[in-house]
Amino acid sequence: MTTTVGAPTTFDLGPAQALSCRECGHQIPLAPEFACAECFGPLEVKYSFGEIRREDIEAGPKNIWRYRDLLPVPSDVDTYPNTEPGLTRLVKADRLAAALGVKSLWVKDDTGNPTHSFKDRVVAVALAAARQLGFRVLACPSTGNLANATAAAAARAGWESVVLIPSSLEKAKILTTAVYDGALIAVDGNYDDVNRLATELAAEHEDWAFVNVNVRPYYAEGSKTLAFEIAEQLGWRLPQQVVVPIASGAQLTKVDKGFRELGTLGLVEETPYRVFGAQATGCSPVSAAYKAGHDVVQPVRPDTIARSLAIGAPADGPYVLDVVNRTNGAIEDVSDEEVVEGIRLLARTEGIFTETAGGVTVATAKKLIETGKLDPEAETVLLITGDGLKTLDAIEAKVGPRATVPPSADAVHQALGF
Ligand SMILES: *Cc1c(COP(=O)(O)O)cnc(C)c1O
Ligand SMILES: [Zn+2]
Q1: Which residue among 44, 77, 108, 127 sits deepest, i.e. has the most Cβ atoms within 10 Å of its Cβ?
Q2: Ligand 2 mean position to 21 CA, how many Å?
Q3: Probe ligand 1: pick from 309, 311, 323, max atoms within 8 Å of CB?
Q4: Residue 371 in contact with residue 407, Cβ under 8 Å?
Q5: Which domains, and CATH codes, for the chain?
Q6: Quick one: which atom of ligand 1 is closest to the CA of 223?
Q7: Residue 288: which of 256, 313, 257, 307 has the closest Cα?
Q8: Which Gene Ontology molecular-function terms are recorded (predicted)?
Q9: Is the pLDDT of residue 181 over 60?
Q10: Which ligand is the nearest neighbour of the Cα of 40?
Q11: Helix or strand or coil: residue 162?
């Protein structure tokens, strides 16, 4: 930590220099703040980047910390225990491409993170920043994956955690959070109720870092690592199209921010790209706003099997609309039945088992292709953000053994129709 006489305390968060309001542009020094004191708009991290070279990144750790010079984390980030998410595989998905009728398709497979979803990225960055900002407890309201990631990262760091979830969450997501032995509290209410409760508690407990509430500006930056990895894995260039699932919308806006930063820093050529958003129809407030041509998002009451995306009042909704409109993308939504079909299609063609959120992405991509919005000739990346093992209930009624037979070759042949 460096202190300048007469100036406010500044925290060492690497290249991060200030927080700036996304609405009115008001700037404040780095602090544990998330809302603008002038207009209540959301705050975003501003940087002063040094020279960043591809070779230095390539020589870095095989996880998100290779991009530390692009993130709001302390210069000595490696000296503290944290999780090591990222550098998940980018899979050339030729069989899925053929099934969807597109020329060149990639799947960014984030099931490979420590707790099997993209949330490990944002939590790791939030934890690194929260430590520097003086917090001592890691907390969150969660639709499931964030609960896993927060409880696991706190356990790894030796911090206490307080995790709030809707009591109706999938059993697998409850157990895979509870096992880390933090304080897991199931709340009778939906995610938006849980989120309100978290905001209230964050105001009362000054040493609790609610990763997606009071340290949200830092947390959200973690999603940029998806953009960095995709570009690096493509050989330091941007894809032409990317399909991103939307819950709060933070991920989608930060993937765009990541691509822009790479261009500005000269790490990739500034080629045009289009950002597409994916939602489940049972919780599609951003898709509805996009289709109606609105620039504000009307909250909804979620009702979908894609519970990890079930945020009825998405904080970053309007900024998602900005990104999609600016990049000439689109937003589409799909039924729960299509979500299950999406899960099965990805499994059948690429051997990747995703959760419902990934089903939303695949099914939405299919619909965007069928409706001519996604260009089948352009190179496309689908963000597969979570693991199917956490949402087994979604496919339970649809898949199972073809037959149950006695242990005889004849019986197997018969079952196979020979
Ligand atoms: C949280 C989540 C998302 C979306 O994240 P936002 O940044 O809130 O839009 C996507 N996929 C999965 C699996 C998630 O858990
Ligand atoms: Zn403001």
Answers
A1: 127
A2: 5
A3: 309
A4: no
A5: 89-116+223-394 (3.40.50.1100), 119-216 (3.40.50.1100)
A6: 7
A7: 313
A8: L-serine ammonia-lyase activity; threonine deaminase activity; threonine synthase activity
A9: yes
A10: 2
A11: strand
Atom number, ligand 1, closest to the C-alpha of residue 251: 7
To the nearest 10°, the Cα dihedral for 166, 135, 16, 78?
Answer: -100
Ligand nearest to the CA of residue 111, numbered in listed order? 1
Alpha carbon distances (Å) from 113 to 149, 226, 275, 367, 384: 10, 12, 23, 28, 12
Q: Which of 57, 42, 386 minimizes the C-alpha distance to 219? A: 42
Ligand nearest to the CA of 279: 1
Q: What is the pLDDT of residues 289-313, one digit of tens each?
A: 999 999 999 999 999 999 999 999 9
Contact of 27 with 87, CB cutoff 8 Å: no
Q: Rounded to the nearest whole angstrom, what is the distance from the C-alpha of residue 10 to the centroid of ligand 1?
A: 31
Which residue has the CA at smallest separation from atom 3 of ligand 1? 247
Question: How many whole angstroms separate alpha carbon 362 and alpha carbon 346?
Answer: 7
Q: What single string gives the DSSP state of each residue in 380-402?
A: EEEEE-BBGGGGGGGTTTT---S
pLDDT exceeding 90 applies to what percent of the chain? 94
Farthest-apart Cα atoms in the chain, separation: 86
How many Cβ atoms sit within 10 Å of the Cβ of residue 367? 19
pLDDT in tens, 352-383: 999 999 999 999 999 999 999 999 999 999 99
Which atom of ligand 1 is nearest the CA belonging to 220? 7
Cα end-to-end span (Å), the chain:
73
Residues 163, 144: Cα–Cα separation, whole Å: 10
Distances (CA, A) of 362 to 9, 228, 337: 46, 22, 12
